[in-house]
Fold this sequence. Notes:
Blueprint: E1 3-12, H1 16-33, E2 37-45, H2 54-57, E3 64-73, H3 76-88, H4 90-96, E4 107-117, E5 125-134, H5 138-154, E6 159-167, H6 176-180, E7 186-195, H7 198-212, E8 226-235
Antiparallel strand pairs: 1-3, 1-4, 2-3, 2-8, 4-6, 5-7, 5-8, 6-7
Amino acid sequence: MTYVEGFVCAVPTANKEAYVRHAEAAWPLFSEFGVVRMAECWGDDVPDGKVNDFRGAVQAKPDESIVFSWFEYPDKATRDSATQKMMSDPRMQKMGAEMPFDGKRMIVGGFAVLLDQGPGGAMGYTDGYLVPVPAGNKDAYRALAEKMAPKFVECGATRVVEGWADDVPTGEVTDYARALHISGDEVAIFSWVEWPDKATRTAGWEKMRAMQGDSDKTPFDGMRIIYGGFVPVIDR
């Protein structure tokens, strides 16, 4: 897996079942177009941030929940071809008109995978992250991710993925740049950690905190990280 398309959206909490049905109905088309995995994760432990957070990223209303989701492709060429097919296929246009949420506030972008580690396995819980990283710190960020990923796996995570912004458009209402308050040459990171279940995730984070000791200097502004815990509702 070398390319990811990442999404964040706000869905009326009352529309959860409708959202799952809508996404399930779309999967056969996405698969036909070249998507090899589709994951849809419903907000469970999504805290408010001091500077920014998932709710602010998509201008969520009090009665809305956050969905963190992604498509996986074998390469960027497959993703680009799939995008063209999705835009022109009348079946997708019909589905787009029936979305049970405000699509104008969804943020979306393509990410080249910097790191993909872990044994894999059933995903029962996910930590999702958005991170602003100066372009000049790409190698430093990769080095930090390569150091931290084995620790997550040691603490029970089954997979760690880090995606570097490659094709991240400016949105009419919301986008990754506004979500992360990006400035200068900063680039958005779309990242997630898969766990077998929430209990393992909770215990894993306790172990991670005990292992940290003196924190390494991060090659990004940690105050602007967006993060949260999500329960998978679809994993195809």
